[in-house]
Design a protein that fits this description.
Elements lengths: L1 E9 L5 H10 L12 E9 L4 E9 L18 E7 L3 H5 L1 H11 L5 E6 L6 H14 L7 E3 L8 H14 L2
Parallel strand pairs: 1-3, 1-4, 4-5, 5-6
Antiparallel strand pairs: 2-3
Length: 169
């Protein structure tokens, strides 16, 4: 088994904590609780050839007046960058978060998620998805539509990130 540090970053209220709760505990709550600082959870991610102990860092959301505290990203092995697909300002922030991760290391794998997919028309969601793939120059395996509420793609995101982290060892 290998241990890997995974951070969830993004603007406030994009569902980072809910994604972690869905992944770690298979639970969801509509109650909004703002993360202050960082909260760390653990879960074993079972891959075909190795188990990865994910140390999942839930980092408080950024705002225009309070940017991401980058000290939480030291020793990072992988990152999930979350946006709320219903709030364009959170989607517009994605490029900034990607640049932060790349400034730490070009080798840190990351996945971008368009969370709260359950709250938007599928046609509109697919349009946003396709535009982002092109604009951010991402591969299909680097961008997912997710829903912490329904569980859509949550396991896939963490499993895909774990595979990318193990391949870079």
């Amino acid at each position: 088994m290998v241990s890997r540090k995974i951070a969830l970053i993004g603007d406030f209220s994009t569902g980072k904590t809910s994604l972690i709760r869905r992944f770690v505990d298979n639970e969801f709550s509509d109650k909004y609780l703002s993360t202050i600082g960082v909260k760390i959870s653990k879960k074993i991610i079972e891959l075909d050839d190795i188990d990865v102990q994910g140390l999942i860092w839930d980092i408080e959301g950024g705002t225009p007046t309070k940017p991401l505290n980058q000290t939480y990203l030291r020793g990072l092995h992988g990152c999930i960058i979350a946006s709320d697909i219903t709030r364009i300002e959170t989607i517009n922030s994605l490029e900034n978060y990607i640049n932060i991760i790349k400034s730490i290391s070009e080798d840190v794998p990351y996945i971008v998620v368009l969370n709260k997919y359950d709250k938007i028309d599928e046609e509109k969601a697919q349009k946003i998805y396709k535009e982002l793939l092109e604009h951010l120059k991402l591969d299909d395996n680097m961008l997912y539509c997710t829903s912490a509420k329904s569980g859509l793609n949550v396991e896939n995101v963490f499993n895909s990130l774990a595979k990318s982290m193990v391949q870079r060892v």
